[in-house]
Input
Amino acid sequence: MNSPVCRDAPGLMGLPTDPTTDLEWTLVEEGFVLAREHEVESLLAIGNGYLGSRGSLAEGCALSTPATLLAGVFEPGLISGPGFVRLADWSRLLVSVEDHPLRLDRGRFLEHRRILDLRQGMLWREWRHQDEGGRVTRLRELRFASLVDRHLLIQSMTLTPEDYSGKVSIDATPTGALTHVTESGIAIAMAMCTRLIDPGGRATGFVGQLSLEMGCRQTYRLNRVLAVHTSREPSDPLATSRR
Output
C-alpha cells in the first residue's frame, strides 16, 4: 500500500482519466505471483450491481479464471447447486510485437502493478514488458462497470513502443459466445465496439484482430465498450445491446 499509484503527472497517461492519488482509496498489487492470481482476480473485481467482472489479466495466464456475471441470472450446478451464469471474457486482449506475445510468463516484466481505485470504481494496470526479442513496450489499462448505464463495461488501454518501431498485432476476440440462453429461458445478448486511436487522433474500428506498424515512443489507445442486456428487460436484448 506504500507504492506510488502513478509516477506521471496528470494527463500524461494517454487514458481518459488518471487514478486517484489518495492511497487510502486504493488497493495496490505490485509485481506478479502466479500462485496468487486466483485470489488477486477476486480482490480486484469491478461491478455496479447489475454486472460484475473479475480482475483477470487481459492476456490471461496459466491460473486465470476470468468471469463476467449478471445479477440474478443463474444456471443449475452439478454439485454445489445453482451458480451465476458466466458470460464471455469480454476484456481479453492479447498484444504481440513482431509475433512475440506480451505475457507475464514470457520475456521479462520490468514494471507491473494493478490498482483497484475505490474512489472512482476503476481497475488500473501499469506494465512495462521486455519481450523475447528484447523490445520494451509500455501498456496502461483501465476498466470499469458504468454507473451511468449499468448495462455497460468499459476498457481502455494504451500501448507505447519505448525503443523500437515495428509490427504490433492485437487480438481482441472475446472468449466465449456473445449470446446465451439459460436453462430457465433467459436470453442474454452482448455487443461490443472496439476502436484503436493512433497518435494523430484517427480512430479505426475493428472486430477480432488488427495488425499495424507502430512508431517508436508513439502512444496508441484502444477503447472497448461492451453492452449487455437480457430478456428480463422489456426490449429486444440483442438489438438494444447493439444500439
About this structure: Confidence is low (pLDDT under 50) at residues 1-13.
